[in-house]
């Protein structure tokens, strides 16, 4: 039985009406990728306001590793709601807050004493990691990379790349942020081998310590282990290894941003586990709490204790409902069977994409780690000209057919796959069938225009 079940055209009349009200009541700047109104969801399926069932390959942008509304999470939240909705961890202590911190200290990479502080969002987690790194080192500078996405608050916007979409009109941005080249293998200079290109990026990183900022002034290097918004680019191991070494050598805090790539998405609990290195601090959010707003900064106890007592925290940070959801989610995702399944899902998506790449010139690249898969669309495979308009057409065609798929990449020319990891093989195949049809439709209209 297919999951997608359409009883109206998409968007249906009720979706249209609610989206129109949203547009009247909220500013145009608040991003909105599809014109659909969802009222219910389970696993990888969502039901809209017109009774259509759609397949969800966005998963709340990587938030729903455990799927929509898993019964144990729902039950834990319901029970907690009856006992204690809010206290404020600044005011007092409750069991789930401590339990999440202890769990995070246990499951994150690194064989050293750790501590965890809880926040509300990925951006707040990144800001807090920077505060911790600065307080513990007494240094101001932060190194980030091209293509990075770290959030939309002022400090994290300064750390984020992709100017036009995220930053235009919002400056001035926080100072002391230094952006360095990131090895995007697919877009390396013509004629360079992968090895040469990675070495060149490492050389430029080392050069920056003379040309841009002295290492003694650098508090942290902040890097996504696998770039998310930038286009699912796994940091090459040699590059990340060099960052680890340089941080150790110069007393710089290595902060891994695993907001999108963490919590099982890459087939390991944390993506950095693929590299056999441990960051000093790891920032997590998204799938940490199954859709409840929660983020965590976890790391070396002596660094975490850098800020003065009272320097960290917030009204809602580590809210009890979010914490009980996180305990359930972490204990589900950490199971070997769950992680194995993530790998199977990723392999299945990759296979579908490679088949499509063999048949359709629009598909320039297929890449990713575990179930964090993506395809990059180009107008010309040799020139790698980003097919940004065509990518939007593909996701629009997908939506019309009942598949929610979203874009990524500096040029918005990638389609990223972040389905719930309790999706079935049949649902993966069904969704990828829709992707194939949508890409074919766009490819043939592109050809018709070219002729
Ligand atoms: C890698 C990464 N870091 C940070 C963030 C910011 O998280 P939030 O939107 O919860 O503030 C995101 C969000 O997409 C992300 O993908």
Any overview of this molecule?
With 451 residues, the chain is α/β, with parallel strands linked by helices. Among the domains are: 71-333, Type I PLP-dependent aspartate aminotransferase-like (Major domain) (Aspartate Aminotransferase, domain 2, 3-Layer(aba) Sandwich), CATH 3.40.640.10; 380-414, no CATH class. It is built from 14 helices and 17 strands. It has helices at 13-25, 59-62, 71-83, 95-107, 122-137, 154-159, 163-166, 194-211, 237-250, 301-304, 320-333, 336-359, 388-400, 425-450, and strands at 38-42, 45-48, 53-56, 114-119, 141-145, 177-180, 218-224, 226-227, 233-234, 253-257, 281-284, 295-300, 363-369, 372-377, 403-404, 406-408, 414-417. Strands 4-12-11-10-7-5-6 form a seven-stranded mixed beta sheet, with helices on both faces. Strands 1-2-3-15 form a four-stranded mixed beta sheet. β13 (363-369) and β14 form a beta hairpin. α3 (71-83) runs antiparallel to α11 and α4 (95-107) runs parallel beside α11 (320-333). The protein starts with 12 loop residues before the first helix and ends with a helix. The structure holds pyridoxal-5'-phosphate. Pyridoxal-5'-phosphate is lined by residues 61, 121-123, 126, 149-151, 224, 228-229, 257, 259-260, 285.
Q: How would you write the strand order of the largest sheet?
A: 4-12-11-10-7-5-6
Helix content: 40-55%
How would a crystallographer describe the biggest sheet?
7 strands, mixed
Q: Note the beta-strand portion.
A: 15-25%
Q: Based on CA inertia axes, which overall geometry fits?
A: globular
Structure class: alpha/beta
Please work out how many helical segments DSSP would assign. 14
CATH topology of the domain at 71-333, anyone?
Aspartate Aminotransferase, domain 2
Name every ligand kind in the structure.
pyridoxal-5'-phosphate
The CA-CA distance between the termini, in Å, is 40 Å
Number of strands: 17
The CATH homologous superfamily of the domain at 71-333 is named: Type I PLP-dependent aspartate aminotransferase-like (Major domain)
Average pLDDT level: 98
**Class of the domain at 71-333, according to the CATH hierarchy?**
Alpha Beta
Radius of gyration: 22 Å
Task: State the CATH architecture of the domain at 71-333.
Answer: 3-Layer(aba) Sandwich
